[in-house]
Specification:
alpha+beta
Length: 119
């Protein structure tokens, strides 16, 4: 009987620890940088011109995004540079071009690209 009780307590503690670790990761800069890379690469890979037009800060940025090959990928994404959950600012690189990327938190673990601009 005592063994079952200890196993139950141990199981609850493991679940609590996993929950805390997941919460910390989902609210970390590492997760948001991953979201920047994932969202940008998905837009580029899918040649999503409608989304590119919607997020491009100006015509020059839109033309650059549109010119990218579906095989191009962002890299060297910076840590959080400033802002808030509504306007988090990052810098990333694609084809040797620096891009300012502004992200918005849309849910507990979801982010979306708000704006992209060429430097």
């Amino acid at each position: 009987m005592k063994k079952k009780r200890w196993l139950s307590i141990f199981g609850v503690l493991v679940l609590i620890i996993c929950g805390v670790v997941a919460y910390i990761y989902l609210n970390s800069d590492m997760y948001t940088v991953n979201q920047v890379n994932s969202k940008m690469n998905s837009m580029i890979r899918g040649k999503n011109y409608k989304q590119m037009k919607a997020v491009a800060n100006n015509q020059d940025t839109y033309i650059f995004l549109r010119s990218l090959s579906s095989k191009d990928r962002v890299n060297d994404t910076s840590d959080f540079q400033g802002g808030s959950d509504e306007n988090a600012y990052y810098v990333t690189v694609v084809k040797n071009q620096d891009l300012n990327v502004y992200m918005r938190k849309t849910g507990i673990a979801s982010w979306e690209i708000r704006r992209v601009e060429k430097q």
